[in-house]
Amino acid sequence: MRQVNIGLLGCGTVGQGFVRLIERERERIRVRDGVDLRVRRILVRDIQKERTGIDRSLLTTNAIEVIDDCDLLVELIGGVHSAGAYVRRALRDGRDVVTANKALLAESGRELFAAASASGARIGFEASVCGGIPIIRAIERGLAGDSIESLTGILNGTCNYILTRMEERGLDFATALRLAQDRGFAEADSTLDVTGMDALQKLQILAELAFGSSHVRTKVHGIDDISRQEIEQARSRRCVVRHVATARRLPGGAELRVERRELPESHPLASVRDENNAVIIRAKAVGEMLFVGKGAGSLPTAAAVLSDVIEISRAEARVYTGENLT
Ligand code: NAP
Ligand code: HSE
Questions:
Q1: Rounded to whole angstroms, what are the CA distances from 184 to 14, 93, 200, 223?
Q2: Which CATH number fits domain 2-131+299-325: 3.30.457.10, 1.20.81.30, 3.40.50.720, 3.40.50.300?
Q3: pLDDT digits (tens, 9 = 90+) for 90-102
Q4: With 70 as the cut, is the pLDDT of residue 265 above it?
Q5: 311, 141 in Cβ contact below 8 A?
């Protein structure tokens, strides 16, 4: 049994979910994957803050202690400055990193992957796009044999939560945003969500994986100026308003758009509610596929983080033997 010591940066919405999920799943992971996952230290800003069920003795404000004393670093603090410095330090020393930080990857992804490649470290980032939906694995591995032509989806849980609460409960924008923040869906700086920047960062990651193109045209429009009237008018036409991200392959490049769109009630994205996300992938051989699920929130996102940790930690790839079927 291989013990893997995890250094955890951040113990907020996702970090606390991650610690709880490891506790809950530890024995199953030991048996299934042959690794014993241990959270060794946890970096926070405020040690006195109430964190139900978290062992206070693991908390520290000393980042270096967390990074230099782990086998694998899980970065869940968000933002680009401190998070970037800590991730670079870990990669430089050859430590594997798992992150849910799309802002950091969208800004410095190439540089970080080059650093990882130079030191032999790996980076897991499934949780950075669409929370619990395994969309990164689907594009990177499941669809490796096909050519993706376009991606269309709802990539921000906060915006979708706001739009559906305004539509179904008659809430105003500010109240719906506050509820999304209370439930832990929004970014620390919620303007990233409502201006469309968070969705654009996620779309950039998906487009890079799907098309690998460097000549990219982008257009982004948020939901921060939406009114109840706009939603009511859409409803009177049997339509709903959704914040839709689209990436299309173009000759020699790609076009990325994030905008709100009025969709007929029968559209597959129209039935996506609350903090759920969805992605429609169109590929040349397979045609159209729809992925739907929780795009934000503590445990769904933690599950994606944990699956990266397991994949990086286990000594060998799992081989399907079919032995439990008979
Ligand atoms: P959060 O609730 O705000 O938690 C952030 C944690 O990091 C807190 O524990 C905070 O410490 C700590 N922290 C922040 N800056 C720090 C610094 N400079 N030094 C030390 N500790 C610091 O954030 P979150 O919602 O868990 O999000 C974490 C990451 O996951 C972000 O990159 C976010 O984009 C991504 N993500 C979030 C979700 C979601 O549903 N929330 C879904 C997918 C991806 P204190 O507690 O002491 O303040
Ligand atoms: N703030 C993000 C959202 C978290 O609402 O989608 C998940 O990436």
A1: 9, 33, 20, 19
A2: 3.40.50.720
A3: 999 999 999 999 9
A4: yes
A5: no
pLDDT at 320: 72
219 is catalytic: no
Q: Tell whether ligand 1 has an atom less than 6 A from the beta carbon of residue 16.
A: no
Return d(Cα 295, Cα 66) in angstroms, integer: 28
30-72 tens-digit pLDDT: 999 999 999 999 999 999 999 999 999 999 999 999 999 999 9
Per annotation, catalytic residue among 49, 102, 202, 219 = 202
Ligand 2 binding pocket mutation candidate from 99, 193, 203, 298 (most atoms within 8 A of CB) = 193
* pLDDT tens string 62-75: 999 999 999 999 99
pLDDT digits (tens, 9 = 90+) for 201-241: 999 999 999 999 778 899 999 999 999 999 999 999 999 99
Pocket test for ligand 2, best of 77, 136, 156 (most atoms within 8 A of CB): 156
Which residues contact residue 216 at a Cβ distance below 8 angstroms, ignoring those fewer than 6 apart? Answer: 204, 207, 253, 254, 255, 256
Cα(185) to centroid(ligand 2), Å: 5
What's the pTM? 0.97
Q: In the chain, which residues fall in CATH 3.40.50.720? A: 2-131+299-325
**Token pair 């020699």 is at which residue?**
252
Note the CATH number of domain 135-294.
3.30.360.10
